[in-house]
Amino acid sequence: xxxxxxxxxxxxxxxxxxxxxxxxxxxxxxxxxxxxxxxxxxxxxxxxxxxxxxxxxxxxxxxxxxxxxxxxxxxxxxxxxxxxxxxxxxxxxxxxxxxxxxxxxxxxxxxxxxxxxxxxxxxxxxxxxxxxxxxxxxxxxxxxxxxxxxxxxxxxxxxxxxxxxxxxxxxxxxxxxxxxxxxxxxxxxxxxxxxxxxxxxxxxxxxxxxxxxxxxxxxxxxxxxxxxxxxxxxxxxxxxxxxxxxxxxxxxxxxxxxxxxxxxxxxxxxxxxxxxxxxxxxxxxxxxxxxxxxxxxxxxxxxxxxxxxxxxxxxxxxxxxxxxxxxxxxxxxxxxxxxxxxxxxxxxxxxxxxxxxxxxxxxxxxxxxxxxxxxxxxxxxxxxxxxxxxxxxxxxxxxxxxxxxxxxxxxxxxxxxxxxxxxxxxxxxxxxxxxxxxxxxxxxxxxxxxxxxxxxxxxxxxxxxxxxxxxxxxxxxxxxxxxxxxxxxxxxxxxxxxxxxxxxxxxxxxxxxxxxxxxxxxxxxxxxxxxxxxxxxxxxxxxxxxxxxxxxxxxxxxxxxxxxxxxxxxxxxxxxxxxxxxxxxxxxxxxxxxxxxxxxxxxxxxxxxxxxxxxxxxxxxxxxxxxxxxxxxxxxxxxxxxxxxxxxxxxxxxxxxxxxxxxxxxxxxxxxxxxxxxxxxxxxxxxxxxxxxxxxxxxxxxxxxxxxxxxxxxx
Length: 715
Known about the structure:
Layout: H1 2-14, E1 23-27, H2 30-40, E2 44-48, E3 54-55, E4 63-64, E5 70-71, E6 74-75, H3 80-91, E7 95-98, H4 104-117, H5 134-142, H6 149-176, H7 185-203, E8 208-218, E9 221-230, E10 233-234, H8 240-250, E11 255-267, H9 275-286, H10 290-302, E12 304-306, E13 310-312, H11 327-340, H12 375-378, H13 384-400, E14 405-415, E15 419-430, E16 459-471, H14 480-489, H15 498-507, E17 511-514, E18 517-520, H16 522-534, H17 541-556, H18 561-582, E19 592-596, E20 603-609, E21 612-616, E22 626-627, E23 631-636, E24 643-648, E25 654-658, E26 667-668, E27 684-688, E28 694-698, E29 706-708
Helix pairs in contact: 4-6, 6-17, 6-18, 7-15, 7-16, 9-13, 9-14, 10-13, 10-15
C-alpha cells in the first residue's frame, strides 16, 4: 500500500497543468482599460476599441432609403488594426465581456463589436457600470446581460436621421451658398435660436421708466425704501416730468411705518449634477466651454493617476439627466456630513430631487466615486482644470444632502398718505448647505442686507429722495451656459449632444463667441433663413423635441425605428426636391483684410477652416498662400519688451505670444491688458467673474493683484 501511494503521488506530480484562458473585457478608451485592469487582475485581459469601430461611410449616404432605410456600415478608417487585435484576443479568450459606456452610443458600440466577433447578442455578453470602481466593475461582471437591442435601435435611428438631414441638405448648401457648410437636426435648431435672439435684440425699442428710492432716518441709522405706490396706484413713472411731480408729492407730509412682517425664508440645496447642470455651472464658475467641461469630466470618469493608488475613476458616469443617487452613495455622503459638520447640517431624512420631464433615469447623477478622495487630497496628482472640476462636483454632491439655508426676512411699508414705500431685507441666520456650495444663476439673486429694527406706527424722517432714469433692456444674448439650458428646457438633443453641437456651429462659422457671449455671423443668418424657408420642420423646436421623444419610445421598445424615419422622410424628401429647384445661388463676398499676400501682392481675405478663421490669398488656385490671423495687443512682452500678439493655434485655440517668437518664447492663454500691475509691474490678464463682468489680475503668482472696472480694457 505504501508503494502504491508513493507511485500515485509521483504520477500526479508529473501531470502537466492546463493553461487557464483569460476572459476578454472590451472597453472604449485606453484610460478606462488601464483603470479597470487594476481591479480585475490577471484572469482578465482588457482591450480598448477607441470608440466606434464601424460607422456609415463618409463618402456616400450609406442609407438605403428604398430598402426600409437599411444602414450600410463599414470599418472606420484606422480601426482595422484595433479590430484585428480584438479578434485575436477574443479567439483565445475564455469569454468576452462588452463593457462600453452605459448609454445608447455605448450599447451601439457593443452591438457592432458583437457583430464583428460573431457573438450572440442574446447571450449574456454585456456588462454595464456607472462608475469605475472595483465594486461596480465586479458587480457588473456578476450581472452580465444580453445586449439591449431597443437601445441600439434608438441610437441607429438617431444616426440615420442625422445622416439623412446632413447628407441631403449639406450638398445643397455647398452648391447654393459656400463649400464646407453643413446642416444638422440639433445644430440647425441651436443656430436658429441664436439668430432669433439677435433679431429680437435688433428689433427691440427701449422704453424709458423711472424708479425712486427714498432714504429715511431710523434712529441714528438710515434705511432705503423703494417707491411702490403713488396716489393709491402702483408706481409707474414713464418720464422725467412725471418723476419730478412724484418727488414733490413724496416730500410732503409725515411718514409712518404702516406694517412690519417678519418671516423666515428657506433655501433648498441644489441637486447633484446632471450633464447639462455641470456644463452650465462650469461655464459660470470656471469659465469653461461646454466642450472643455466634457473633455475634463471624461478624464475624471475614465481614470486619473493618483499618487499611492494608481489609475482611479474619480467620478460616476458623466452623461446623465437624472438626479438620482444610489443608496450606498447616499449612506456615504450622510456619514461624511455627520462626521465633518455639526448635526444641524444633516437633514433627518435624505433629500430627494425631481428629475426634469423626459429625463432618463438609467444613470445616477454625477458624483464622486469616493468621498475619502477629497479635492485637496488629490490636488497634487491632477491638473489644475481637473482639480477645479472635481472640486465643483464634489462640493455640489456634499451640499445636495445638507439642510436648508435659513434667512430672516423683514418686509416693511411706510407712507405719507399719498406715496407708499416698501422695504425688503434678508439676512442669513443659518448657513446650511451654503457652507459648502452656492449655485450660480444667470439672473442675480436677492442680496443680503442689514435688517433695520422697525416698529409699526414708528415715525420716519425723510432724508433724501433719489429719482433714477432707466430704460428697458433687450433680451440677453445666449452664453454657452444659457444656450445649454434653453436646449434642455425645449427638449432639444440629449446631454451628450450639447457640447459637440456648440463646437460645430462655431467651427462652421455660423456663430462666433466673444468673451462668453454667442453672436450669429452673416453666414449663420443666411443659412438659418434658408433652413427656415425650405426646411421648416428641421429647425422647428417642437418638431425636433417630438423626434427626441420618439427616440425614447424606440428605446423603450414601443415603436419600430424604421417607422419613425419613414414618417419623417416623406415630407423631408419633398422639401429637398423643392429646395434644389427654388434656391438660387447666393454669393457671399469674402471679407478683405489689411494683410498683403507676400507671394503675389494681393490683399488677403478671411476664410473659414476646420479650426476657425484664417487668411487666404484670393488668387487661389494660382496662389495657395495662407496665413494665421495675428491680432496685435497693447501689452508689451515682459521678457524682451516687444509687442504681444493674439495668435491662433493649429487646433483653433487663441493664445497670446511675443512677436519675437521663436527667439522669445513668452506665451499666455489669457488676453493681456494694456497696463502693467500697479503693485509689482508684471503683465496683467483679463478674466471674467461668474456674472460675466471683466476684471484683470496680475500673472505674478506671488502678487495676484486684482483690478476691476475700466482698467481691463485693451484699447
